[in-house]
């Protein structure tokens, strides 16, 4: 089968197209999916570069964002009225062990031995992929495959961060770093649907206009304004939630933008894996810090419903699988808006 593979860790040029990559088969508890679309996200870039501590057999196939059609069903997969050959599906990318204390307590998203599709096991940059049946969700006919790949990583993470962990309430105020990106644009719309007031950053007038079209109440040019000062001017004592996919030095700045009792939700490390933090200001103002990676199956169901009902509208651009290396360069540059989708 055709697959875009990582032949070594390094820059985008290590992505190499293979026309004869071994085709997977559906294991007894798996579903074989004919991939129609796969998304490019930051996780793919980290895997390609060589994620610290992650040992992968090479060549490897990236891609946690997967949408397609069922091609085969394993012999031990329970019967289901919707899970049939040809059915349209989207993949929930978080794989849990099913046996650890967290899994046994009904929290498989916190699995102690979690893995992710495209990171620890082959992903969607290929014509076919085999996925555990429990990780395959029905995709409503109203959702295009290209839009569906905004769900598994970006939409799932945004919904889990804001609604499940952040417990966002109507009337609260949210600040989102990078509101024009894939995760940010989904988060903006999820927050707006919840009845929140939304402040978000972007770089340059073109991307600020994207924020305005999404319904952001206060769009801030991070290259031309002092972000923390503008947030202080636009709020009465700070925001209730900061969604921060950047990390690094931004963590302390994000914390200081919170109102008393505010929640900082960290969901990325674009600016580094470590940060300094003013602990006094954190406890003194009853602020809390949460880490989020992906989300629950319930989050996946909810964000899929929002998309099916067109209460959120993804920002996407589609390129051929053969152009994956250039898509990686674009994502790394930070100049793209929304999700880059690979058509398989």
Care to describe what's here?
This protein has eleven helices and 17 strands. With 344 residues, it is α/β, with parallel strands linked by helices. Strand 13, helix 8 and strand 14 form a beta-alpha-beta unit. The strands form four sheets. Strands 3, 4, 5, 8, 9, 16 and 17 form a seven-stranded mixed sheet that branches. The longest helix is centred in the middle third of the chain and has 15 residues, at 151-165. It has helices at residues 42-49, 101-104, 145-148, 151-165, 182-193, 205-214, 227-234, 250-256, 279-284, 297-308, 324-333, and strands at residues 3-6, 15-18, 30-40, 65-73, 88-91, 94-95, 115-116, 128-132, 136-138, 173-176, 197-202, 218-221, 239-244, 258-266, 288-291, 316-320, 339-343. It has two domains: 3-150 and 314-343, Medium-chain alcohol dehydrogenases, catalytic domain (Quinone Oxidoreductase, Chain A, domain 1); 155-291, Rossmann fold, CATH 3.40.50. The chain starts with a strand and ends with a strand. The chain is 28% helix and 25% strand. The model has no long low-confidence stretch (mean pLDDT 94).
């Amino acid at each position: 089968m055709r697959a875009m593979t990582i032949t070594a860790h390094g820059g985008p040029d290590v992505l190499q197209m293979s026309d004869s990559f071994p085709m997977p088969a559906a294991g007894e508890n798996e579903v074989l999916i004919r991939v129609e679309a796969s998304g490019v996200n930051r996780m793919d870039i980290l895997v390609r570069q060589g994620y610290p501590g992650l040992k992968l057999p090479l060549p490897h196939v990236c891609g946690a964002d997967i949408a397609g059609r069922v091609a085969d069903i394993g012999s031990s997969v329970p019967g289901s009225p919707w899970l049939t050959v040809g059915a349209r599906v989207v993949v929930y990318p978080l794989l849990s062990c099913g046996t650890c204390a967290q899994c046994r307590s009904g929290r498989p998203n916190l699995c102690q031995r979690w893995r992710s599709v495209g990171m620890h096991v082959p992903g969607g940059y290929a014509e076919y992929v085999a996925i555990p049946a429990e990780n395959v969700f029905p995709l409503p006919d109203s959702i295009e495959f290209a839009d569906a790949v905004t769900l598994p990583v970006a939409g799932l993470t945004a919904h889990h961060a804001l609604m499940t962990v952040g417990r966002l309430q109507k009337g609260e105020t949210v600040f989102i770093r990078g509101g024009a990106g894939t995760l940010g644009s989904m988060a903006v719309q999820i927050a707006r649907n919840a009845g929140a007031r939304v402040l978000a950053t972007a770089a340059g007038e073109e991307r600020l206009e994207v924020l305005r079209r999404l319904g952001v109440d206060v769009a801030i040019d991070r290259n031309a304004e002092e972000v923390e000062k503008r947030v202080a001017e636009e709020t009465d004592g700070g925001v209730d939630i900061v969604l921060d996919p950047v990390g690094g030095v931004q963590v302390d700045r994000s914390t200081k933008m919170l109102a008393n009792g505010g929640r900082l939700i960290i969901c990325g490390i674009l600016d580094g894996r470590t940060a300094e933090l003013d602990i006094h200001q954190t406890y003194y103002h009853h602020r809390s810090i949460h880490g989020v990676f992906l989300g629950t199956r319930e989050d996946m169901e909810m964000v899929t419903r929002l998309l099916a009902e067109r209460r959120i509208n993804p920002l996407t651009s589609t390129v051929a699988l053969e152009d994956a290396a250039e898509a990686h360069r674009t994502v790394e540059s930070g100049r793209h808006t929304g999700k880059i989708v690979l058509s398989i």
